[in-house]
User: Fold this.
Amino acid sequence: MYMKIITVVGARPQFIKAAAVSNTIRKCHQEILIHTGQHYDPNMSEVFFNELGIPKPDYNLEVGSGNHGKQTGNMLIALEEIYAKEKPDLVLVYGDTNSTLAGALCASKLLIPVAHVEAGLRSFNKNMPEEQNRILTDHISELLFVPTVSAEKNLKNEGVTKGVYNVGDVMFDAVLNFKVLAEAKSSILEELGIAKNEYILTTIHRAENTNDINRLKNIIEALNESNKVVVLPLHPRTKKYIESYGLKFSDKIKVIEPIGYLEMVCLEMNAEKIVTDSGGVQKEAFFMGKPCVTMRDETEWVETVENGWNVIVGTDKNKIMDGIMNFYPSTEQQKIFGSGNSAELILNTINQYFK
Assistant:
């Protein structure tokens, strides 16, 4: 059965996942790609479509930043018009952003089936907007594509058992697809004057860290005092808060503009260690076989911690420094994110659903 599928994306991790899934879907079906414009900086958005070969969006809502209610509301208004015009058979959403919730909620109100890629993840911290988004999206989805066994268990504990499929992680597909290309095309190590395995790669973007001066101050001080060479692609929002708080970096911190996915993959592959508050980067660290120090109070990717390749340090300065200096895995990695064929499994499940 030939179908029309609408895919809604709006942020960097979703572009990467769509790179794996959209091209697979388009082998069999028509896909309408909607970019909400939640990430609107060209370095956070356009560059991903260009270098990953993602089809250009059919619609760009250009909602930009704003308070959660306003941003989500603007998305809902625009999406409702598009859904009514396009009349899709299915709406596909990814992850846990406001774009995810808006895409799913609008479809559910119009009685269009929703498929949620990366379903079942839980931090068990409802103060996080992402946690609210993922719970609500899961409970209105018809097809729930979970990446791990623990995600499947989380849904079961909430009484959600119908339409749940463990397909592995689509970001693992993406890393396998783009690793070789990243190595061939990226010259970022030479440009930054750094050597393989002699720097720490860091990302800071989560609101609970950027919006709290004490948490952000602890992170910056830990990076400064670790006396390690640190490469920090700086998120625009993080940059704004650092400047407003008057925080400074030491000479060993190489602060750079946001970068494309291939450059990021290259930096991850060649880092000694990765220090982050990003969910996606935690997984990418695992895929690259790199120790990960997570500057959050909890993680959705509990398997990476249980397997000994990720340590949760919160924003305690001493714990961050200890993680940077002393944390190394003591166990072999287990195969916990599938086999790199998640996109094919998602397509096959969608086909079965409509039969």
Notes: The domain at 4-169+338-354 is CATH 3.40.50.2000 (Rossmann fold). The mean pLDDT is 93. The radius of gyration is 20 Å.
